[in-house]
Amino acid sequence: MLLRPASRTTIRSGDNLCVRSRRKLPRSTRQISSAATAAVGEDESSIHYRLPVNTPSGNDLEPASTTRWEAIKTAKPFSSFLTDNFNRQHDYLRISVTERCNLRCLYCMPEEGVPLSPPAHLLTSPEIHYLASLFVSQGVTKIRLTGGEPTVRRDILPLMHSIGSLRRHGLRELCLTTNGISLYRKLDSMVEAGLTGVNLSLDTLDPFQFQIMTRRKGLDAVMKSIDRILEMNRLGAGIKLKINCVVMRGINEREILPFVEMGRDKEVEVRFIEYMPFDGNKWSKGKMLSYGEMLDIIREKYPGLRKIQDHKNDTSKTYQVPGFPGRVGFITSMTHNFCGTCNRLRITSDGNLKVCLFGNSEVSLRDLLRKDNSGNPLDEEAFEALKEVEMNRQQGLAGPNGPMSWAERENELLEVIGMAVKRKKERHAGMGELENMKNRPMILIGG
């Protein structure tokens, strides 16, 4: 079912004009959405990749104070484009910024790696920034950069600073999923960019087992990254550190207790993840150690392990050993799904929107974004050229058969996003179906 076209509210921002797509709703007493806050507080620097749109001319423009009041009056609790048919509000966006990785983890991809997309098929940094700002304008408050391994992207630091600038428009959390190999060298700049959380993938604390599981060396570098985060937190950085450990029967289940004991004197949360099936990872039910079995292993040594209250959208079930500052979590995708409170959307490195990690349906945002650039990648120069075309259109200098206005293109993007979100299923398939379902390798989805 097609969504109704969104109305547009034009906001003056310095010498430019930008658009915010918004549905007209009754005046609400609920908290103003981050989208409305962004619209009211936008400045010229924040529309680096936003294009001006058709606006009334001369005296038809409303005073800034009136426009601000209109923005407040028409603010909605949450974007309908990001709300599915089960009333789940998707305010968490995961963006894969690269398909490359410096490890070859057993559960992620085959030893020989996976075929990588041609560079021209991958999103550019301006495209990533634009999509991030579009989703934030619709109510996304948390963005996580994933991969592959995001720290291997050459411009990861300026990209994070660019996305971090969206905090003034409602972004509250900027997080990273990483294997930690080179994180410690880039961490200071990332914190300056606004980094608030790190999910660090680590499946063993034994250097020899690490080499077996990742097919590479590097445990010392990973531990250096963990220690650097903890050191920065002691100085007040406030980085939420979570260590993700995929547990596989017969391979690393003996690591469960050593990981739990990391929390004896370190304020970390170790999350044990049930082994999940993806293309190329040779998944089998026999290798999967269930949440219940992991709990039994821990409680045999720590019978006082107690449950902690989880937040609504948490993916993990959280526990704590009395007296330990650290915590233990379990991500139970295979045995106890948490689909009912799912608030996550994913954008792959090649620009596809994926509404469910375990779903194989995707829709390309990249192709729609590049439509007016002959399908070519949009770099900063291309965005500036499109901006010039839009300015010429406003001044009546563009021909009638030119490309769609950027406001219309943005609205088309939102319609496509909205339809994809509305098609999201109530829950993903069961274990038996997932085992045989065609899906990308995990590295090509984004962790």
Automatic annotation (TrEMBL):
It holds the Pfam family Radical_SAM. One of its GO terms (molecular function) is 4 iron, 4 sulfur cluster binding. Residues 85-306 form the Radical SAM core domain. Keywords: 4Fe-4S, GTP-binding, Iron, Iron-sulfur, Lyase, Metal-binding, Mitochondrion, Molybdenum cofactor biosynthesis, Nucleotide-binding, S-adenosyl-L-methionine. Pathway: Cofactor biosynthesis; molybdopterin biosynthesis. It catalyses: GTP + AH2 + S-adenosyl-L-methionine = (8S)-3',8-cyclo-7,8-dihydroguanosine 5'-triphosphate + 5'-deoxyadenosine + L-methionine + A + H(+). Its cofactor is [4Fe-4S] cluster. One of its GO terms (biological process) is Mo-molybdopterin cofactor biosynthetic process. Its EC number is 4.1.99.22. Signal peptide: none annotated. NCBIfam families: moaA (TIGR02666). This is GTP 3',8-cyclase. It comes from Xylona heveae (strain CBS 132557 / TC161). The lineage of its organism: Eukaryota, Fungi, Dikarya, Ascomycota, Pezizomycotina.
